[in-house]
Amino acid sequence: MLKFFKLLIITSFVLLFTACSSKNPPLQTVEKVELNKYLGTWYEIARYEHFFERDCKNVTANYSMMDVETIKVINRCTKIQTNDKKEAIGRAYATDDTNSKLKVSFFRPFYGDYWVIMLDENYKYAVVGTPSREYLWILARTSKLDEKIKKDILKKLPNLGFDTSKLIWTIQE
Q1: HSE on the CB side for 113, CA within 13 Å?
Q2: What does the H/E/C string look like for the chain?
Q3: Between vectors from CA 163 to CA 160 and to CA 166, what angle results, nearest 5°?
Q4: Is the bond into 131 cis (omega within 30 degrees of 0)?
Q5: How many C-beta neighbours within 10 Å does residue 57 have?
Q6: Quick one: average pLDDT of 81-107?
Q7: CA distance 26 to 92
Q8: What is the pTM of this model?
């Protein structure tokens, strides 16, 4: 458990400093996120590799309201090699009226960016990234994403400054 908290501290510092050193053009987010529609469970379809999810499969994120302004975040995964289950509980809050730019923390007081850059009109899939382009997640309401949708997302990502060759496709059993 202590190792997990050390990883969270390091992650928070990485998020903090990479957000300040972006050389890419400004990252555009979706026009509006209706939080009530966004709440619930999302399955990770793909991500950029990072140490706090390394060797993880069956990755999910669950969002629920803690209070009027704070979102509770529960990330879960199963370690591929050992089948041990991991869970991290954090909190998030919107930084603007569109709710498309959020700050997330799993170890306060350190917060990282969580920007919704693509969102299905029916909230069936979402793409979340950071302005530094260090982090990227493709999420869906189901454990599998339609191939046509996946191809459409992959076609758009390079124009937003994301390298699709860096994506790790999450095992969802």
Answers
A1: 25
A2: CHHHHHHHHHHHHHHHHHHHCCCCCCCCCCCCCCHHHHCEEEEEEEEECCHHHCCEEEEEEEEEECCCCCEEEEEEEEECCCCCEEEEEEEEEECCCCCCEEEEEEECCEEEEEEEEEECCCCCEEEEECCCCCCEEEEECCCCCCHHHHHHHHHHHHHHCCCHHHEEECCCC
A3: 145
A4: no
A5: 16
A6: 96
A7: 22
A8: 0.85
pLDDT range class, residue 135, cuts 50, 70, 90: very high
pLDDT(1) > 90: no
Tens digit of each residue's pLDDT (9 = 90 or more) over 13-28: 334 444 444 467 899 9
Average pLDDT, the chain: 89
